[in-house]
């Protein structure tokens, strides 16, 4: 069906435009839903409550706010037509990947249409010579890396969850490999975005894929991390990296948090190109042991990984061992082959579920702050003390090589006092990070929960500038309303 | 003097605001100049023709368009007050660093006030533990690296010219080290920017300096590369890097352009972490020999540099030599100590002056395109053919590790036919890059000369989006008008 036909079905374009400002949100009536259905087809739309509820929440503790309709578009032309329909009817648009976000980013606080992008999951263009791949929004990072296996290349950004790549672009995801390979901000080359009014934007120009440019404003960086508030990402060109010749992982336990974090700071300051350096406190290690059937010493611990040539690796490992030993670290427990390494990193990636398993039936909220590396020992020690004083369960795990860490708060949502204490604790933690020149979120985003903290972080003029950009690119405030600004 | 006093001198704020839209540009009368003088003091302002002409052009062939006034502010509060005065009087603002740009970025096409930032040249905050430094806008990269010498750290972005660091941020500069360390886009952590109306913005929040964040829209990336069209950069926090344990440079000659460029592509594809890989064609090498008193073989040549540990370097060099030898490259000519290396890189950085010396009295225009690495051999070979067919002098030099290269066009501005042929040739070159999925500028920026090419590169929706951003942040179009969009 053409756009014209779809819009006709919906009362005609000029009629839509004329009534635009008089009917803010919730113009989701039968006629409008029929218009959407005419574009995506009967099997790609649902108004069933169970489906809507499944799409109204992510993995955080934010309560479910279901959209009015869920649709599964199959190509960019459909996305564009659907966006125009929403635009003409002042209906909110919420892009949805895998629902693995941690700040309530998919919550439909003003109802509207959830665009589930998982049926657009093709790999469109792999160019091994130029180290790039173009993908549709719905493909996940594991599916991409599985596809790439024989090319000698991989996509290293790894937030733990098997998230969709455009969801990762939208939230500016990072994770365990960022200390070496950067975050989505450094690894997205170009985006195709459907703007709220249905126009299709290529942030760096159509099919362009250079290593650098100084042609005009950096639109790609503006959309990476915009959390679905500026447009719907329908295609991404990503930077790939060569699979390293050699990889080894190791685990090292320390007598204190300070010793583990001091080692991290010193490893980075020596310029060792470490690929992963993850901190887990004793509570987290204990939870991981129990959840994964492992038996690591219940002490503050670093999980490390080295990538390089065989010779280069030897040098990296030797320098790192010298540093950890000076700080009283244990001998390294090695994981050299793929299977052992997978076991180690699965344990790390399961931290969230391991923490939840500490109190069966509980819910989780993973906080996320990031500070300059030199402030890490201080903030982690203070935070640990605060957790004990607040009588809260919040094992600490983090990408300490970036100065980024999480407390995985495990709580009973029915215990109002505990909920209040968690909220107060996480606000104190974010403000502690801000007071140390840090940020209130290294990788989870602002979403619903951190808008006040963003204001404190970026200041009055910064927030005003962000609001100006939002108002310019999304004048009707239809794109994922209520998030970020 | 306070802002209030300065504005009073200038007729009162409300009066200014009321007449705002009726007097577009050129409200530069005695009263206005007195207002500026009251802010910066007698010695920091000039309306002398010679001074204005010196500020109305950069190192490109764009003709001189002098501003009406040149001022040298000494701190951010002065910049803010001066911007407010310009804003109230609808006078254009042109930020000026060292005037070493290559696309006419400082040309005052609508007159106005040139803000020469070189008296704000302090290093405000060096934090070696966190690998960052905060600088005022006027300090140059050489002065910064000289200051850093004993810290074990350095700032690697090196466009050749000893440009000011905030000028480099404004143009998104890169240069010879970008293949390993990234461009300004990857190395600016935070910017303080005075907006056209005088408000002071900290793009990542005041005094923040984390390695990563996902807090809100990426304002830092929006200002890097905006060429002074969105605001005046008054402070930058930059990422520093550890000085490598060992450095060696080498020169290698090749039987053909194709062989030199093929070697580059293969070195990158093998994942060798090369720090610099610069291509010079035979015409360029000949000019460099003559200008610098050197005697390299007059053949297509690569200048290479390796950074790392002593052991790591051995491995990098061995792999690189294997690749160059397979492609018929000469044995490496080594430059191991600092003095020899300086001689080699001075020769490379003097390429511009060496090219101009080919035809004494001539003017230069350095083109700048960037393509995916796999397309490099093809575009350089085609471009060389085009130069010969067009009967033009344009030695080729480039940061081929990024897919980025320049033809340094040497021409007689009085020869109208030659000027026309140069213009046609450089447009053909840019469109050749665009046709190969590339960009019309890898590092020089859009400035005055490439606005049409930017439209072709980014497309209709892209340009419309950039124009929306410009109109929102600079509603009176006072910031460096006529550049970029």
Automatic annotation (TrEMBL), chains A, B:
<dbReference type="Pfam" id="PF01565">
    <property type="entry name" value="FAD_binding_4"/>
</dbReference>
<comment type="similarity">
    <text>Belongs to the FAD-binding oxidoreductase/transferase type 4 family.</text>
</comment>
<dbReference type="GO" id="GO:0071949">
    <property type="term" value="F:FAD binding"/>
</dbReference>
<dbReference type="Pfam" id="PF02913">
    <property type="entry name" value="FAD-oxidase_C"/>
</dbReference>
<dbReference type="InterPro" id="IPR016169">
    <property type="entry name" value="FAD-bd_PCMH_sub2"/>
</dbReference>
<feature type="domain" description="FAD-binding PCMH-type">
    <location>
        <begin position="62"/>
        <end position="243"/>
    </location>
</feature>
<dbReference type="InterPro" id="IPR016164">
    <property type="entry name" value="FAD-linked_Oxase-like_C"/>
</dbReference>
<protein>
    <recommendedName>
        <fullName>Probable D-lactate dehydrogenase, mitochondrial</fullName>
        <ecNumber>1.1.2.4</ecNumber>
    </recommendedName>
</protein>
<dbReference type="InterPro" id="IPR016166">
    <property type="entry name" value="FAD-bd_PCMH"/>
</dbReference>
<keyword id="KW-0285">Flavoprotein</keyword>
<keyword id="KW-0007">Acetylation</keyword>
<comment type="subunit">
    <text>Interacts with CSRP3.</text>
</comment>
<dbReference type="GO" id="GO:1903457">
    <property type="term" value="P:lactate catabolic process"/>
</dbReference>
<dbReference type="GO" id="GO:0008720">
    <property type="term" value="F:D-lactate dehydrogenase (NAD+) activity"/>
</dbReference>
<dbReference type="InterPro" id="IPR006094">
    <property type="entry name" value="Oxid_FAD_bind_N"/>
</dbReference>
<keyword id="KW-0274">FAD</keyword>
<dbReference type="GO" id="GO:0005739">
    <property type="term" value="C:mitochondrion"/>
</dbReference>
<dbReference type="InterPro" id="IPR016171">
    <property type="entry name" value="Vanillyl_alc_oxidase_C-sub2"/>
</dbReference>
<keyword id="KW-0560">Oxidoreductase</keyword>
<comment type="function">
    <text>Involved in D-lactate, but not L-lactate catabolic process.</text>
</comment>
<dbReference type="InterPro" id="IPR036318">
    <property type="entry name" value="FAD-bd_PCMH-like_sf"/>
</dbReference>
<keyword id="KW-0496">Mitochondrion</keyword>
<dbReference type="GO" id="GO:0004458">
    <property type="term" value="F:D-lactate dehydrogenase (cytochrome) activity"/>
</dbReference>
<keyword id="KW-0809">Transit peptide</keyword>
<dbReference type="InterPro" id="IPR004113">
    <property type="entry name" value="FAD-bd_oxidored_4_C"/>
</dbReference>
